[in-house]
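Hi support team,

I submitted a single chain yesterday and got back a structure, but I'm not sure I'm reading the token output correctly. Could someone confirm the output below corresponds to the sequence I sent? I've pasted both exactly as they appear in my results page.

Thanks,
R.
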Amino acid sequence: MHIHIVLVSDQVLPNLIPALMERPDRVVLVATPAMSTKGMTARLARLLRREGIDVAIREQAPDAGLSRIQDYALDLAAWLEGEHPDARITLNATGGTKLMALGFIEIFRGQGRILYTDTAHRCIEVLPDGKGQTAPPIPMNDVLDVPTYLAAQGFVFERAASDAADWREGAATRKRATKYLGQNATALGGFIGALNRLADLALEPLPGSREERLTHPEQTLDQPPRGDWSKALGQLLQAGLIDWREGSPAIAFTSVEAALYLRGGWLEEYAWHIVKDAGIKNAGIGDVRLGVEGHWGNSPTSTNEFDVLATHNNQLLFIECKTLRFQGGNDNEIAYKVDSLGDAARGLFGATWLLSARQPTQVLQDRAKQARIGLIGPDQLPRLKEVVQQWMEPNP
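Hi R., thanks for writing in. Yes, this is the structure output for that exact sequence:
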């Protein structure tokens, strides 16, 4: 029998990942009153049980006073010996307070393996045993999909638009047009803004619902399209998104989905396709979802949305997409929203990016830099796959 001992802390992932990698028969959660009150013990227990791992909870653990911590660890060791005398013991010393980790390491060194989760470098360190011998680090397996990662952060995943088969079929049909818009965003800045405006005019809210309906599909550009604009309209026509006659300023959106796509959804799809393609080429992206909806555990009636989320080597990539040009205060609001959502969803590790199809203002650039948000403007969109692949590389 294999048993993991885990010191519960605010950071769930470093305690969860080794357990999901090794699949022990039982995980013993050592919880202080503070961790139980905050719900961290229950959250970790729920995640482990969802994966079919048996969980035992040992509460009232002290988080201060080395002698008290060591006495508690000795009592736990005696209990384990009595309950499972032949078990292999692994102590995950990543969690708890620093003093708790030191106290438990002193007691359990020589009785089993001691692990430390180095999430930043994507490996599990094995601490020296009682004889001073050290095993090499264990590379992390990719064990977290998007819903599980979010659950570890306290977010309840409800749905993702990209999970629907009909949505994926439509995205495949639009892929060529999506890639065209993304690859040519710099030259098409004005076109993207004009189309966004017309699509917004074509839609109106559906009463009593968060959905929208297509009420005015026929719209008119300010002038007959030429050059880059005409080529782009040709791509949209081929994809079945609009009805249009070459040289005419009049267009008609073919469906509510087409209008939503051209109001800005295309950039989300561009990010989704690029991240998926990067993962296929490098066999590295564990999961990619678009249009994720859910709620934080303490706010079940308030829905939150994420444009694109991906997991790779147990880290989360959050991508927010914007196709409109904002000024001043709106840029501050956007940066604050993206920073807050990204920080809450990914925790200490991973990355938050903001994709902008229009040239970012200096205000947005400054705010993104302050918040450590990766800002990717239209000039960088053509090389987004390279940026994704760089993020996928292990830290040195």
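A quick pointer for reading it: Residues 142-396 form a domain with the Trna Endonuclease; Chain: A, domain 1 fold (CATH 3.40.1350.10). Let us know if anything else looks off.

Best,
Support desk
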